[in-house]
Fold these 4 entries.
Entry 1:
Amino acid sequence: MALPLAIQASEPAPEVRFVFAAPSPYTGRFDATRAGLGIALELQRLAREQALPVRIGLRALPLEADRAEVQALLEPQPRVLVVGGSTWSQGSAAPLRRLFELGGGISLQGVRATAFATAGGAHTGGEMVVLDSLRSLMGQGALGFTSGQRLMVFSTDERLDHPAGTFTPLDCWAMGQYARELLLQAHASPDPAQTAALASRLGVDLTYFRRFPRTLASLPPASTKVCAQINALAGPTRPGLAAAASALDRLAPEIRTLFAP
């Protein structure tokens, strides 16, 4: 399905902006940042494959952020806003709470917004982090959405079959599915029929579990590739984040040096 002629002729590519509230006060790792990079890498790959251009923005919440810096994270408003944070005591960790405490008065009217979270275990409150974030975003006027019937929570500890701080191939498959939803939202039409046609083209549907891979062999190569990229970045000193971020067509330098070598 071709883009409307008006979009082709006059509008810049829509921005999908990631805002990371990290590190985790529990692990000291930048798990949410690495998950966001994985999603962004998949988004860029899909945008190129589908010839649906997007501009990817990466923003990081400074640990000592003030209101002006938080305002700079959220303004000017993007087409799609993706907020990522971590879990603490079965709820949102302090950096994510600070983002909404300082930025809650900023209007996000008309912005399509979503959220993901990282958590130590599968049942330690990650879903509450996502839901709290969505409520706060909608309270600022944003149009909240999820990846169909799945909330994006990635657990990075409390497992016997993978080292702490790593994402599984299935996690990275889910990142790719989430990226499809982000691409759909970035290019959604005011006409529901056109958006439904684009969803079909991108392989986006509500019942993601119908396409759920049942074996490692059935995973697409992109899933294992992105896992290798972001798992290599684990560690509190943020090794290699700059190299991974440089693979993206970013809009502008980040507010501070989160992605510096």
Note: Residues 14-239 form a domain with the Rossmann fold fold (CATH 3.40.50.360).
Entry 2:
Amino acid sequence: MVTFAAATALAVLRVSDPEPSRRLVPRPAPTSALYLSGDMLSRLDLESGDTRPIGRAPTNDVHASDVSPWVAYVASGTGARDEEDFLTEPVLRTINVDTGAANEIGPGFNPMWHPTDARLAYLRPIVERQCSGESCRGLFEVVVYEPDSEVSTVLTEPGRFNLLAWSGQRVLVANESDLSVTFSLGSQEDVERLDIEPSELWDASPNGRWLLRSDPNGATLIDLGNGEESAVKMDQSALADGAWSPDSKHIVAGGLNEARTKTRALLVDVPQGSVREITGELPGMLDVTWSPDARRFGFLSFVGGGNRTELNLCSVDDTECEVVGSPLRRAILLRLD
């Protein structure tokens, strides 16, 4: 058992190697799901439904890489646990849940992992954030960090940004100085303006070829290679949260009913834009996560009461999903291993 002196560090229960892995190993179909329930980080075996605790987290602001053992989390620089949502002094840390190797990146928040490699983008505050109620103001830099090498690359001058998505090797952001376009960042010297408002950008494909636009009139796929835009062949459902597959060939999204009280899991084929309905109506669809092999995906849906959810495991080749394990309480699905 590894225990860290800092009260805001994540304590890993089982460690096999004190050094982080420096090489990503291709993995077959997933055998477990990594999730956070309360402050406990655990793995759920997809065959047996059994759970195994890994460690305790000092915060619920936890984000896992889909393709490596690294997990990023944001904690208070003052050591407080009750102000996680709007921290004036956020500190970003990473930990390898297989080995226990840990890094403190420094001031930072909103970590966003690349969908196909072990890099994350985040916002680094330049001056202390001023938080009031449910909002914070300040100046930030957009930074990319590689936990294996501990190398950081700054992509912007200080400004007010929101991270939107990875698009291939580029990071898409909203810049509050101009919300009529989306900014695509390659480096401080390599900045492109995309003709899509940040509020309409649903996601970008991991290979950098496609954008998905979603607005009240429907959803369209934008080909960044030629600029062509084609409709996604769906009914009048509004798109809720979802995720692009790591091979960029599929999108899983929640389709809301007209009253926006129920949702269905929809599988979109790219670039055809055809849509398959994977589930009937569900009371909610949370934390859509793909396996690294791009063949299976999972999500949480509400069941019963008391903030209980269950894990739904689906395949791109099937028309039904299966429920794995027992209901989870206050859970966040982080990745399929």
Note: Confidence is low (pLDDT under 50) at residues 1-7, 12-25.
Entry 3:
Amino acid sequence: MPSKRTSYSRLAWRRLGNWRAINFGYFAFGFIIYALLTLAFDAVITANFTWLWLVSFAVTYLLSLLPLATYLIILRYWLPSQKSAPWINLWVVALAGIVKNSSVPVVAQLLGLQTTNTMAFRIVGGAFTGVALFVIYSTAMSARLDHLETMRRLRESEAELLGYRESANEILQDEQIAISERIRRLLMPRLTELLSSLSKAGAASSLAERLQNVIDA
């Protein structure tokens, strides 16, 4: 029997595979953290507190959203049934962090700003930051994510049950039509024979006419 620690580890790993954790809340969380990091590692270190750092931050942050948005579009519209894939999520958020950090020197140079740290440092730091942000956010929002996952499964089950219900109604209607047809084929010869006998006897002609009308209906 797995220990509680093992079960918790599996649950935490499964949460990291929930691509729905990459949502607007995650974007807002990343926006705040990256803004603070820009202030600490760019403006403070270079002792240049110009508003152009805000422009640099905005542009580089928007660039970091491109791989995340592409990933979400692919999963939502082309692979909606994608199961938990922690490694893919971690690679994508790491890529987003790399794009964010590695684009800073390029944008800063276009704005006439001086930057520090080497490109290798920025790439490694960007990957680490991207993964760390996602792990922290998905862990902190675990209850909310589990609720959303449960509601998603309930909606899928509801849709499946509604599909079964519609299929059952169609099957029932087909069976009713088939039963009515079998009854009609079974009774028609006997009713026709009865009407013929009544007509030959010349009695109860009105009854024969009524029966004929019922058969024709």
Note: The chain has eight helices and no strands.
Entry 4:
Amino acid sequence: MGIMNLAVRQYAAAFLLIGLVISAASGFGSFQYEVTLSTRVDPRQVPLNRSCQYTIEVSWEGDTDEVEIGPVEEPAMTNLEIIGKSASHRIIETKTGRRVFKTIEYTLMPVSPGMAHIEPAELPYTEKSTGKVLTVRTDRIAVEVIKPVHEPERSLKRWIFPGISVLFVGGVLFLWFRKPSRKKRTAEEPRLLEEIFLDELKQNIRLKDPDRNESFTRLSRLFRLYLSKKYRISTLESTSEALIASLKEQGADDEMVNRCRHVLTMADRFKFSGRQASRAELEETYTLVETMFASILGQARTAVREREQSEKKTKQAKQPA
């Protein structure tokens, strides 16, 4: 009996050792990874005539060869419009290997005062060894759109030096007392629409970007948003032909209609043909939009000055001699 018990214990130990080896081999064959997705908006309270930045950041670390990262779809949103987009990649070394970051930034323009929402972002990825498709998801983000802000006038620095003449002091005092009324009048006047979009054009459309078709898409989207605000028509979902027809119905002159047709036709050409736009074609369309904004802005400012001069003359005529 003692010999049989010893044999049983030996066989049991052998089976236990085999189980540990199989378990260890299975452990060596497994892989570890981490995939994360985050979103943020800055600022969360944005004036109607300002833009905000929506950022999506994807990162993964570990056995990245065993994971296939899917695309992040363009965000769905209400009361906000995309007027710019950029993307970047970076890699950092960690204690466990390399961590890869992909960042996508959208420039958003509010449509109307009130609440705006950006729907959750989703990132699908596939485990190559199992074929299992997993998804990470963010939360919905709310953005408050408030009334337009007024542009503060930049204050001028004045330095008073000893020994200046009485005449110069009188001139400085004259300008000093006139400046508050001018500043008050300027603060009451919001920025003109063309001034806002001219700034957005220069900040978000980069002629040196290698993907010129994407630049054309951003330019077309910005231009359509401008037309929707200026003429109060639906432009972002309309075809180019329907948009041109709406402009004519709203009384746009022939010059404006022809410019719009040129910009929209060029954007559609590269959107549907798949051909890469040339630098010259992008610069030509960019210059056309920039010149149009600057021309309308100049005419509006001239009209404002003429109105102020007319009001000044009327006021002077009413004063007793």
Note: The helical segments are 2-29, 166-187, 193-204, 212-231, 240-249, 254-273, 279-318.
